[in-house]
Amino acid sequence: MSVLAQLKTVHVEAEKKSDRPPLLLLHGIGNGAWIWERDQKRMSELGFSSFAVNLPGHGPDVGGNPSLDEVRDVVLQAVEELGEPPCVIGHSMGGLIAQMVASEAELHSMVLVNSAAPKQVSMTPQKHHIGPALQKIVPVLLGRNLDLRGRHYRDLGFNCVPEEDKDELEAKLSPWPNKLTRQMVFSRPEVVSKPCPVLVTCGLKDRVISFRVARLLGDFHHNAITWRFDDLGHFPQVEPGGLRLIEAALEWVANPTSRKVLEIKAFRPDEGVGDTERKRRTPHPERSDSRFKGRFKSRD
What we know:
Elements: E1 2-4, E2 7-12, E3 23-26, H1 37-45, E4 50-53, H2 68-82, E5 87-91, H3 93-102, E6 109-113, H4 127-141, H5 151-157, H6 166-172, H7 178-186, E7 198-203, H8 211-220, E8 225-229, H9 242-254, E9 264-268, E10 272-274, H10 278-281
Parallel strand pairs: 3-4, 3-5, 5-6, 6-7, 7-8, 8-9
Antiparallel strand pairs: 1-2, 2-4, 9-10
């Protein structure tokens, strides 16, 4: 394990030298650099060097209580130390940190995987969030770290993870630092949408962050492409079909493009990029009705 901006980091070099940008990998709350292990191996095979950092309050720093701004600042240092603009890939909370960093630093590109959204984008709780929230809200307000391990993680986060893998994964999870939890729930920061190529990916079976959030997030970042993977949940890094996501995303990173119209490309298990039944299978309108739509040009 190496060190990047004082963060314990898993650095995996590309198998062959290339001119592709380095990948800076930001995990979600309660996770760690370990969540990217399978993806980093594939990244190396595809010619990318990757840096999976343990964010403050996680990994060796479990028990720490950082704020979102403090996490952003250390990631900004990591971007500077890399020496060239990286592609930042952020999962869940890591996606929100990525957007905060992109507001202030020059990036090659940004990939948001089941990402939390900034304050400007609505993240309305879903019905299945209410029970866990009611059980855990008082300890959080009293300043305690949030521990969702057990039934809540299994029902919400690990719903697409094979049953035989859940115990091992759950053992690696850590409680959510209190400041990060409170800010994620009550006071998400605003970010600035800058002209950095952005790819938003989401799993249709994600029970933590809904497809609607991904759609609005793609609209907010005015040049973002949004891809929906029908068979994936919240943790594609450890789900059976998750390598499809990272392989598709890295193909985009090698030649990032922007969108001109508001549309969702659906990736289905056996069909690749879905077109013929996209409208029928998309639970929200393919053409966005969000308040950000005025930024876009029509197809004509």
